[in-house]
Amino acid sequence: MSDAPQNDQQPPSTGNKVIGIPADKYAKICYFLVLISSAFGVLGGLVGLAGVQMPLQGLFGFLGFIGLVMSFLGYFIFAPLFNAMELSHLKLVVVLFGMAFILSILIALVFGGSVVGSLLLFLISLGFLAAIFVGFRQWQNGEIATKDGLINGLKDLKSVVGR
After folding, report:
1. What is the pTM for the complete model shown?
2. CB neighbours of 142 closer than 8 A, spacing ≥ 6?
3. pLDDT digit string, tens, across residues 142-162
4. Across residues 82-94, what is the average pLDDT?
5. What is the mean pLDDT of the segment spanning 9-32?
6. How far is CA 113 from the centre of its chain?
7. Which residue from 56, 65, 139, 50 is spatially nearest to 100, judged by alpha carbons?
8. Quick count: other Cβ atoms within 10 Å of Cβ 112?
9. d(Cα 69, Cα 56) in Å, to the nearest integer?
């Protein structure tokens, strides 16, 4: 994970735009795109366990890809327009997406379209959705995304879901 230059200034002004999007809304749009794609991926994975292909799966996957590309561009190309908190969240999206993608490819290569492979892919999708949701909640609270913050957020989410 390479570190982009950090900008510790106050949040960007609403006048700054990144690819036509106000800089103060950029991370939120990235999160929304990835969250929508991830939620549909979980649903598709659940239905996939029954051997059924969901319609529009490619479209929702493409939304996630757009969110990933936007996060990547924001973190590596447009870093000076963001503060440290926003950069940490753009980095979080890129890292989590990359990890989920690599794990998914490895599982597909090892297990193919078997039931075990489908179950593992579903679990990865569910974990990715939970991690992205926790990251989004941290962004909403104005917290910098850290590994410890993500782990604690996942533990809190687990305790809420487990009730």
Report:
1. 0.83
2. 85
3. 999 999 999 998 988 887 776
4. 94
5. 78
6. 24
7. 65
8. 10
9. 20
Find, among 160, 100, 88, the residue nearest to 128 by Cα: 100
Burial 68-95 (b: 16+ CB within 10 A, else e): bebbbbbbeebbebbbebbbbbbbbbbb
Angle in degrees, CA 147, 39, 75, rounded to 5: 45
**Helix residue ranges, H only, 49-114:** 57-76, 84-111
Classify 13 in phi/psi space as left (phi over 0), alpha (psi -120 to 50) or beta: beta
What is the separation of C-alpha 139 from the centre of its chain, rounded to a whole number of angstroms?
12
Token pair 């957020």: residue: 153
Q: Which two tokens stand for residue 47?
A: 């239905």
Per-residue confidence (pLDDT) for residue 113, from 0 to 100: 75
With H, G, I as helix, E, B as strand and everything else as coil, classify residue 14: coil
Q: CA distances (Å), 79 to each of 27, 73, 84, 98, in order? A: 12, 8, 9, 19
Task: Summarize the confidence of residues 106-110 as an average pLDDT.
Answer: 90
Backbone angles phi, psi at 18, to 5 degrees: -120, 120
